[in-house]
Amino acid sequence: MTGDAGLVIEGLHKSFGRKPVLRGIDLAVEPHQVVCLIGASGSGKSTLLRCVNLLEPIDAGRITLGGEDITRRGVRVNAVRRRVGIVFQSYNLFPHMPVLRNVTLGPVKALGRSRAEARDEAMALLERFGLADRARDYPDRLSGGQQQRVAIIRALAMRPELLLLDEITSALDPELVADVLEMIRDLAEGGMTMVIATHEMGFARDIAHRVCFLDEGQILEEGAPERIFTAPQEARTRRFLQRVVDAGRMDGGRGGT
Amino acid sequence: MADPVPPHDHGFRRSRILAGAGGRWTAALTSSLIALASTAVVVGLLVWLIPKSKGFEEVKATFFDRAQFRDSFDGIGEAFKTNIKLFMVVEAIVLVLALVIAVMRSLPGPVFFPVRALAVIYADVFRGIPTILLILLLGFGVPALQVEGIPSDEMFWGGVALVLVYSAYVSEVYRAGIDSVHPSQDAAARSLGLGRFRSLRHVVLPQAVRRVIPPLLNDFIGLQKDTALVFQLGVVEALNQASIDASATFNYTPYLVTTVFFLAITIPMTRLTDWLIARDRRRRQAGGAIA
Ligand SMILES: Nc1ncnc2c1ncn2[C@@H]1O[C@H](COP(=O)(O)OP(=O)(O)OP(=O)(O)O)[C@@H](O)[C@H]1O
Ligand SMILES: [Mg+2]
Fold first, then answer.
1. Alpha-carbon distance values, B266 to A49, B130, B261 (Å)
2. ipTM reported for the complex, 2 dp
3. In whole angstroms, what is the distance from residue A99 CA to residue A107 CA?
4. pLDDT digits (tens, 9 = 90+) for A214-255
5. Domain coordinates of chain B in residue numbers?
6. Which atom of ligand 1 is the closest one to the Cα of A50?
7. Each residue's pLDDT tens digit, B215-252
8. Is residue A38 within 8 Å of residue A240, measured between CB atoms?
9. Is the CB of residue A43 below 6 angstroms from any atom belonging to ligand 1?
10. Which atom of ligand 1 is nearest to the CA of A214?
11. A37 three-class SS
12. Mind spelling out the 3-state secondary structure of A45-99?
């Protein structure tokens, strides 16, 4: 399901107007790896993910995906986006289509797959994640957790090489979080390459091969989760983690599974 | 949502609900009675006062002549078909043209600046010209040019004028609809690899159009009425037929006949529009309560 050379980000800079938001990001994600981005609000996690999906133009640097430079001039943006799935905090399902059409829209209209094939595959995915009985419902009939799982399925239906998840549980009631995290764990075990921005530290510790601490647009520290969470080198990382512990979010995602 | 009323308060709550239901019923009855009474008073006053006015007998004879009404009914009905035809053709074209203009105006980025500018100029100009003036300009001006291959039919140019004006208005309605769809919807579609136009077509426009159906209908009520303006070009439609009948008999009752025809189609459309708006509001409130 995954490409060969993964994702490589080099010297990525991005400003909004005069405000620098990403200041020289270097990050490599190998195929089948799961990287979690942690960091304070406003540190640039969402912007980084949006840059990788070419939803934001970048100012300097280079991003390669599967060996191909996707930030070069004249790149076919839509073709790149078909290879990179992204799921947002606010689900962003299409409210005027039933669940099944939400899932098949991309495969049919962007990939040019036949309707029948797209439907069969969509139903198989819905089945796998326990949502087959909601295929005909409109999104507003679903709970937040179900909507978010449909949004993930919608991204998966494109058979992406890389999946970007942007705080996908932040808008959910606590009791709905576990189902969504369970699904991501499932995908990680299946070898999906993922970059995940998250506030669920327990979940990051559980699932990530590598954790990157983002601070004011830079990756201040990165490493294996055990090291980042138990022996952070940087004072700012320690302070951030201390605040997370104080807020009681360290164990998020472990309970209920 | 949690029930904020503690259990021992149930008795209190039940009694209030009963009183509430009874109260609502009485209130409804009372307001109906008031409405009925005030209507009766107003209508009574009019019926009593109008015949007392000095010119009443004359107005009655010239505008409310039964025989005349019957005589001109069929002819005006026939001519009214022209209005309907004109309306249907113009409306169909407006629906498409206005959408094209609205989409042109919504295209982002510097590349599309000329396209956007064109759309803005179009909307500004054709909303700024009085409809009747444009009808006269095109209806008399263009055929007078006597250019080979350009139709010289007045009805055609009257229709063109209506298309130009109403497309400008309706494009604004569409635009409001497009603007009301949150950008994250487009982002979600684009992130699936759908191009700009596919995202518009499958995700943005279906949501936009659904939201603006009531104001669209409103503009079409205006268009239905404005088909009468082409009478200035000599097109034989309902209003023109009425004026022909009226000048032949020195009786204005044919205008009343024309009025009746127009109301017969505009009032149902107005009711439908109001009903859709009310339904929309109810839905939004229900949606808001859920969210
Ligand atoms: N479209 C935009 N225009 C201007 N500024 C923006 C825009 N998007 C983000 N920013 C700014 O960029 C900075 C980084 O934002 P970003 O959303 O990437 O942070 P984040 O790490 O995802 O934060 P959070 O944890 O709150 O989601 C913030 O200061 C934000 O205000
Ligand atoms: Mg964010």
1. 53, 22, 9
2. 0.90
3. 14
4. 999 999 999 999 999 999 999 999 999 998 888 876 664 444
5. 67-282
6. 18
7. 999 899 999 999 999 888 888 888 988 889 888 888 88
8. yes
9. yes
10. 21
11. strand
12. HHHHHHHHCCCCCCCEEEEEECCEECCCCCCCHHHHHHHEEEECCCCCCCCCCCH
Neighbours of B41 (CB within 10 A): 10
Residues A91 and A86: their CA atoms lie apart, in Å, by: 10
What CATH number labels B67-282?
1.10.3720.10
> Which pair of tokens denotes residue A111?
């990939």
What architecture is domain A7-246?
3-Layer(aba) Sandwich (3.40)
Do B194 and A96 make contact, defined as CB atoms within 8 angstroms? no
Residues of chain B positioned with their CB less than 8 A from the CB of A155: 192
Question: Backbone dihedral region of A22: left (phi > 0), alpha (psi from -120 to 50 degrees) or beta?
Answer: beta
Q: Does B286 touch chain A (CB under 8 A)?
A: no
Where do we find the tokens 């080099």? A10
Residue ranges per structural domain of chain A: 7-246
The answer to whether the beta carbons of residues A239 and A247 sit under 8 Å apart is no
Please state, in angstroms and rounded to a whole number, the distance separating the CA atoms of residues A123 and A133.
10
Q: How far, in Å, from the CA of B235 to the mean position of ligand 2?
A: 63
Ligand nearest to the CA of A44: 1
The answer to whether B202 faces chain A, any CB pair under 8 Å, is yes
Distance from CA of B195 to the nearest CA of A (A): 6
